Amino acid sequence: MDRVLNSFIVTLRGAGVPVSISESIDAAQALAISGYGNRQVVKSSLAATLAKSVAEKEIFEDCFDRFFAYQAPKADFAAGQDNGDEQNPGDMPPIGGMIMEGDLGGVALAVRDAARSVDLQSIRFFTQRGIFTSRMLQALQLDQLDRFMADLYREGGSGAAATTRLLEQGRDALVDMVRRFVEEQYDIYARESTERIIERYLWDVRLTELEERHYDRMHFLIKKLVKRMNDRFSRRRRRAKRGALDFKRTLRSNMHHGGLLFETHWKKKRVNRPDVVILCDVSRSMSTVVRFCLLMLYGLNEVVARIRSFVFCSSLLEVSHVFESCPVAVAVERLRTGEGLDIHMGRTDYGSAFWDFTNRHLEAVTGKTTVIILGDARSNYGDPADELLQKISERCRRLIWLNPETSPMWGTGDSEMKRYMRLCDQVMECSTLRHLEQLVRVLVRIP
Amino acid sequence: MTDQNGKFESVDKVREGFKDAGYICNTDIATTVYLAFHLEKPVLVEGPAGVGKTELAKKAASFMDVPLIRLQCYEGLDESKALYEWKYGKQLLYTQLLRDKLDQVIDRGNDMDESIRTLHQYEDIFFSPQFLEPRPLLKALQAEQGAVLLIDEVDKADEEFEAFLLEILSEFQVSIPEIGTVRAKTKPYVFLTSNSTRELSEALKRRCLHLFIPFPEPELEREIVRYHVPAIPDLLEKQLVMFIHEVRKLELKKAPSISETIDWARALILLHAEGLDRDLTRKTLNTFLKFEEDIRAVDEKLFLLVDKALKETA
């Protein structure tokens, strides 16, 4: 059973349940205690020791049912006639004998043994199916069987034709069975790893080049990222300031000790969540980046206190109300289509966007605000109006500029990035999911 | 903890035992409880509110016939509330009362050095077990006959506290600087419950067996209702459970839990109901739905829901 348990754990790991060594030891001990008599009990024992969250339990259910599915071998071998082994028993490989006898159980076992000997559980990619199938057939000594059949056919003799026919049928059924078996095992062991390769690719793909068919996956990944970030940073809001005595609280709580200071209370520092004002360039080249950036920011309610969002192209417009009235995923979609928004989608003009912002919405920026500007700073040779940006920069706590272009491109052509950079507290490239994650780390670190 | 009277002989025995104690469990629960006993590991219980996570620990205590020691977690819970505290007041009082005695001991005639040396001989009297106030965790370790330790809503406590729990949960010992290491005389049987308000640390999960209690299957829930409300007519019980299951499928702020099913069953018995009908259901919705929005949402679909429940049990 140990070996079976081991490969089951490999399956679980492949499916995304991180099973540690100590947990696998627990599982083995649990099985030793509860026994193998009752399928349900075995399942519960393994679930208790291996899957440690609701999500993992679900994966576990699925894996368990598929891994321990009992299937009667489906190949149809004709029931054997015993005259086969009288012919030439020395040369016939054991598998041939099983076929002749119609020993289905034996064949199934032999297939499983072969799978173990070629280490089938290491299969990861669908391109490996062929090679594993042929390796397994080799392990089953199919080539010997073929040779034996050829010899038999050549020699002829009484009943040879019938035996050959029988063997041939059995051989085809066997090949079929092995192929199906490899297919099933591929499903069990490798299904998740393809998924993971795509996931890894998505972490580093430039958002501007993301294909639309990956959007759903990306949403899912961002959800995961947001959850992780919320978990990580939600509990850091209060932090003890070591060494500074909170004298008032100490006195108060020690009144009943007659003024003797037994219990001490220390001063605590509150770590505030930042208020964010974000200005997004929504010209065509930017739309995917804006979409995912907003999707993430609006999820971060444990990290960010309040968000006001503005979009601009030729003119600037506040869109916070869109996010308040509908779910984030719907809201970003509405921004993309521009449905019900009065925005002028002409040439991008940073100068006039800043002018609109400083004249109409400057009250949104206070000494506590973190202002994020998401844009490529390509202003089509218009007036950059950096003095207006300076005004914003002086008023806010931090000014962060996120540019989806790589830094060598900054300042080339109509890019005003070099000019704007001087006024920002932080400038970051922002074109992949990984960059978005970095943004969160920067956000929580309030100076 | 040793197995008394073979109560933990097999999974089925455990299930039977819990049933006698008043807790009806499925195979998952029985197996996990059984394993936790034999592997001497804590059980981390997760699941929606009101499915009987806390109840499981209580019933385990009565099943094993040992005391239940409960530690309710909240934000800001620390060692002095969970493990032990010195009895400051008592220490203070004793020093006051013993002032004369102390004077004698020190003997004013002696010089400083001598006095300090004398005092050193008595140093530990005020930091001895007599002045120690054990809190739940220490109590559980000290229990002679063993105990069931329930650490309730561990997800509400801070991460630091979780880290602190690790030592206790894996070694069943704690160190108190002034006294030394306290080792469990009999290892307590530990349950931790969580409502998943946040993800618990990997390290903690690794040390525990994990048990997820979902809303029960209709069959099991009917058995539970029958157990707690024996007077319920057969038909009503079937319809009621079916109705609750339909309600749980809706998107509600707070889906009715087992305890609410039982409450509702009791209410219907008081009203002498023999079977479910629309009018009666509408009037008693507030026994199992706790939000105005939820009541409204269910009320809108009442016709459909009741119909479905009646049809499926017909």
Topology readout:
The complex is a heterodimer of chains A (about 450) and B (about 325).
Chain A lengths: L1 H13 L6 H14 L4 H12 L3 H14 L16 H4 L6 H8 L2 H14 L11 H11 L2 H14 L4 H45 L10 H20 L3 E8 L1 H7 L12 E5 L4 E7 L5 H13 L6 E7 L3 E3 L1 H6 L2 H10 L12 H11 L8 E6 L11 H10 L2 E6 L13 H5 L4 E4 L3 H12 L3
Chain B lengths: L10 H11 L5 H13 L3 E4 L6 H12 L3 E5 L6 H4 L1 E3 L1 H10 L1 H8 L5 H10 L10 E3 L1 H7 L5 E5 L6 H13 L1 E4 L3 E4 L5 E6 L7 H6 L1 E4 L5 H11 L5 H16 L8 H13 L7 H7 L7 H9 L1 H12 L1
Parallel strand pairs in B: 1-8, 1-9, 2-5, 5-8
Antiparallel strand pairs in B: 3-4, 6-7
Helix pairs in contact in B: 1-2, 1-3, 5-6, 11-12, 11-13, 12-16
Q: How would you summarize what this structure contains?
A:
The complex is a heterodimer of chains A (447) and B (314). Chain A is α/β, with parallel strands linked by helices and 447 residues long.
Describe the structure.
The complex is a heterodimer of chains A (447) and B (314). With 447 residues, chain A is of the alpha/beta class. Chain A folds into four domains: 2-67; 84-203, no CATH class; 212-270, no CATH class; 275-444, Rossmann fold. Helices cover 54% and strands 10% of the residues of chain A. Chain A has helices at residues 2-14, 21-34, 39-50, 54-67, 84-87, 94-101, 104-117, 129-139, 142-155, 160-204, 215-234, 247-253, 287-299, 320-325, 328-337, 350-360, 386-395, 417-421, 433-444, and strands spanning 238-245, 266-270, 275-281, 306-312, 316-318, 369-374, 398-403, 426-429. In chain A, the strands form two sheets. In chain A, strands 5-4-3-6-7-8 form a six-stranded mixed β-sheet. Mean pLDDT of chain A is 82; it is low at 79-89. Chain B has three domains: 11-81 and 138-212, P-loop containing nucleotide triphosphate hydrolases (Rossmann fold, 3-Layer(aba) Sandwich); 84-131, no CATH class; 218-313. Chain B has helices at 11-21, 27-39, 53-64, 79-82, 88-97, 99-106, 112-121, 136-142, 159-171, 202-207, 218-228, 234-249, 258-270, 278-284, 292-300, 302-313; strands at residues 43-46, 68-72, 84-86, 132-134, 148-152, 173-176, 180-183, 189-194, 209-212. In chain B, the strands form three sheets. In chain B, strands 2-5-8-1-9 form a five-stranded parallel β-sheet, with helices on both faces. In chain B, strands 3-4 form a two-stranded antiparallel ribbon. A two-stranded antiparallel sheet of chain B has the order 6-7. Chain B starts with 10 loop residues before the first helix and ends with a helix. The mean pLDDT of chain B is 86. Chain A binds chain B through residues 18, 20, 22-23, 26, 29-30, 33-34, 38, 40-41, 44-45, 47-49, 51-54, 57, 231, 234-235, 256-258, 260, 262-263, and chain B through 11, 27-28, 30-32, 34-36, 38-39, 41, 43-44, 46, 88-89, 92, 158-159, 196, 198-199, 202, 205-206, 208-212.
